[in-house]
């Protein structure tokens, strides 16, 4: 039987581990969070993934039962059982600076348990240069040499949360190894789950840099359309309609504006690149402007809410629908919704928020749609979710009293006219 060890069992690592389990691999899943390991051992996860009609919860239970997935805290047991190890632990950004401690402590654990002939594939998104300059030297402190005693490759991770299983399979994977054997073994391993092309680059740094650039282009694209929203608003045009029309051009791919840019990937991209750029004396002016612009969107949306309340003399109470960092996600890490809610509350607005997918508790979060809409006139839509039926807003607030501020293109002005509610869109 083939064994593989996946280290870090979060939004990437868990579905990745289960993808190998579905291919008949025995997967040793390691995570340093004891609470998460206990949840997984009980067959629990709040992730919203599915594959061929089965939810990630069902897939997890299947593979716990048949023994193909073993979640654990212990690197030693996992690394003794596996020749192939994939790492998906994060590098968060704190105060604009990448924080390497999770990756460093993971590298140290691997070093302590490293054996001859093992292959390590790093799949975390990293500051360009990290695999060679941070990760590899720690592994070699074991006394074993890369390319002779053990093998190391970097393969970028491109999945979008909510489509993880499908994208592991159908998205080309880019990778590079530190030697021919590293590359060949990494390609063979990735091909177990990836039906698409495995793109082999000339160096690890090419793959690391391409990955961050992929995320940066989304940050800049979103900044551009959010800026342009101010132009279309002044022209009394719907930005979403303008973009839909522009995107019928076959070489145009504009993203849509929203309440800001959240999650783990896109907001970190500029800071990963900037860390390296500063070291080399390169200025990333445009990228920085885009990042700062996107960081300012929650304040802009909060202003829009306050101005709307004042304009219509509405109660200073808002029902927020959707707090995840994007539509149909359970992830609220760096979610702009949290910042908008904080600003609104600081400015004296009472907020009740409903999001059936987000697990984390907040004092402003309520358990039902009905509770959120109780005694409010203003509804702020920040994310779509299964379990939020936007049309039902008007069963709780009479349309003649409802003011909807829509950042997700749920309603059109035509809907507002027909139903008789006030609609403010970005
Ligand atoms: N979430 C995405 O959609 C996505 C997409 C592409 C790439 N990525 C990248 O993949 C990586 C993982 O992202 P994620 O969203 O899965 O993060 P996550 O926070 O959901 O999961 C990371 C897991 O690693 C664990 N961990 C941290 N330090 C550890 C250690 N030393 N040893 C063992 N486990 C440790 C944490 O407990 C956590 O469960 C990041 O580099 C991210 O940038 C994420």
Write the topology of this structure.
Elements: E1 3-7, H1 13-22, E2 26-30, H2 34-41, E3 50-51, E4 54-55, H3 56-65, E5 69-72, H4 75-81, E6 84-87, E7 93-94, E8 97-98, H5 101-113, E9 119-122, H6 130-140, E10 151-155, H7 164-170, E11 173-177, H8 180-191, E12 198-200, H9 204-234, H10 239-246, H11 266-280, H12 285-295, H13 297-312, E13 317-321, H14 336-346, E14 350-354, H15 369-373, E15 378-381, H16 393-396, E16 403-406, H17 413-419, E17 422-425
Parallel strand pairs: 1-2, 1-6, 2-5, 6-9, 9-10, 11-12, 13-14, 13-15, 15-16, 16-17
Antiparallel strand pairs: 3-4, 7-8, 10-11
GO molecular function, one term: NAD binding
Enzyme class: oxidoreductase
Keywords: NAD, Oxidoreductase
CATH superfamily of the largest domain: NAD(P)-binding Rossmann-like Domain
Helix/strand class:
alpha/beta
- Supply Rg: 23 Å
Helix content estimate: 40-55%
Please identify the top-level CATH class of the largest domain.
Answer: Alpha Beta
Beta-sheet strand percentage?
Answer: 15-25%
Strand order of the largest sheet: 5-2-1-6-9-10-11-12
Please tally the β strands and state the result. Answer: 17
Terminal residue distance: 54 Å
User: CATH fold name of the largest domain, please?
Assistant: Rossmann fold
Keywords: NAD, Oxidoreductase
EC number: 1.1.1.132
Enzyme class: oxidoreductase
Protein name: GDP-mannose 6-dehydrogenase
List keywords for this structure.
15% strand; globular; UDP-Glc/GDP-Man_DH_C; N-(1-d-carboxylethyl)-l-norvaline Dehydrogenase, domain 2; alpha/beta; Rossmann fold; 17 helices; 6-PGluconate_DH-like_C_sf; NAD(P)-bd_dom_sf; five-stranded parallel β-sheet; binds nicotinamide-adenine-dinucleotide; 426 residues
